[in-house]
Design a protein that fits this description.
Helices cover 29% and strands 0% of the residues. The protein contains three helices and no strands. The longest helix is centred in the last third of the chain and has 9 residues, at 66-74. The protein is globular and about 35 Å long. It starts with 24 loop residues before the first helix and ends with a helix.
Length: 75
C-alpha cells in the first residue's frame, strides 16, 4: 500500500505501540550489515491481545519493543 497523506510511513526500528526504539537486532543487521545475535523477540511469546493492538498497517513491518512486551506480560 503506498503512503498517502493520511497513511504515515511505518518505521521498522520504532515500536508501533509506543513509538520508542524497538532494539530489533534484525533491523540493526539490515542497517549496518553487521551480524547480530538473535533478536530478543525471537525468544519471546507475545499474547494475542498485545498483537491485536498493533495497527494493521504496521503488522509484520515493525516489532513491539521489550518495554511494551514486558508491560503486557505483567498485566
Amino acid at each position: 500500500m503506498p503512503n498517502t497523506p493520511n497513511t504515515p510511513a511505518i518505521n521498522p526500528i520504532l515500536c508501533p505501540l509506543c513509538g520508542q526504539a524497538n532494539q530489533c537486532a534484525m533491523e540493526v543487521e539490515l542497517a549496518t550489515g553487521i551480524k547480530q545475535a538473535p533478536c530478543w523477540c525471537s525468544q519471546t511469546s507475545f499474547a494475542a491481545e498485545l498483537l491485536d493492538k498493533v495497527p494493521p498497517e504496521a503488522r509484520g513491518k515493525a516489532c513491539i519493543c521489550s518495554v511494551c512486551a514486558a508491560a503486557a506480560a505483567a498485566a
